[in-house]
Amino acid sequence: xxxxxxxxxxxxxxxxxxxISTAMADNDPNTSISxxxxxxxxxxxxxxxxxxxxxxxxEASLDPRACGICHPQQLQDWQKSLHAHAMGPGLxxxxxxxxxxxxxxxxxxxxxxxxxxxxADEVVAWLSGGETGPGNPQEETxxxxxxxxxxxxxxxxxxxxxxxxxxxxxKALPPSPPLAENAHQPHNGWQPxxxxxxxxxxxxxxxxxxxxxxxxxxLLENTFEEWQASPQAKxxxxxxxxxxxxxxHLWRGxxxxxxxxxxxxxxxxxxxxxxxxVSGILSLTSTEVGHRFPxxxxxxVVMEAIQLNSLNQQIPVTRQEQIVARQVSLDxxxxxxxxxxxxxxxxxxxxxxxxxxxxxxxLFRIQIEPDTFYxxxxxxxxxxxxxxxxxxxxxxxxxxxxxxxxxxxxxEIPLELNSGP
Length: 421
Known about the structure:
With 421 residues, this protein is α+β, with helices and mostly antiparallel strands. It has helices at 5-12, 32-40, 57-60, 64-67, 72-80, 89-95, 103-113, 117-127, 154-158, 199-206, 223-228, 231-234, 239-243, 257-263, 372-384, 391-403, and strands at 159-160, 163-166, 191-192, 214-215, 218-219, 264-274, 277-286, 300-308, 320-328, 335-338, 346-354, 361-369, 406-414.
């Protein structure tokens, strides 16, 4: 079933929320990975049910902190990740405007951002005023901390019907010690699955179905197919190779400067003054990114150059820029432009401008704006007055989106000026 994303965008502030079919990621439905994923990502997910009687309290808990007792590194990594913050203020602020009992509308957001049925139940209770909300979490006791407020939790990917699934055991680890006779086996038996090391697993929330919503002939969310066409895919590098190196649960991407720098090459050439003009070429090449850079419609990359005066102040009339992004209208009705880079492609800012009389130097810079679309969406929603209950939360989301901007590259070059006769 396909849905128009505009309603969901205004409901969730995230276009990742379109319902998709994960099975589309594999043209051969008979493979074990495809069959597993078809079962694993049937949306909406069903309740886990009753935990086996043999499970101790920690194993019966769905809270990530319970998992962290035995998996501390994974918990620490996850806590820093965007997955742990998938139910951020932008999404929560818009859930607050929904009918508490409209589970189908909630699922437009929750099926990726908080996919467990137990989390969906908590959202209904919270919106109805019956449970602890995200502004007042009871953090001291594991059972009382709202699961929905923790976003994409361990169980969202690893647990179905209290059966734990995950990748095959890391061969670099020493062998597990043998269990004593009749001892409780952790997780009542753990099911290794090849799918957890396949990019197809990630397609569940990072790829629209083939007949999903598209603009200008391109699916709105197309990251998996972009990867399939990449040199990295042909080399056997999966999503996990870059976003989960050494199986770390960090999922770093466009929001992380080091990750972006590892995927691109930046060069600055030919900066000079000649006959009262200044020029220079700033280049950005996607060298190691296994999909379009940046993927999706939310981020943008701003390459810019501007002349500075003796007080190191910018001279606005001298500014030139090159935008690298897929920019769409806020109602998702139009694609305004798409200048993103396929693997191996280069964006260039060829700066050519008159030398301003006050100029002493020139600044070349690359800014990363990870949440540009969300920023503009939150502003428009708040300015329109259409948000009531969630307005305060949306203002926090706007602050977070504005604060996500960082400088990827910056170089200021003094200019040799003509001294005159």
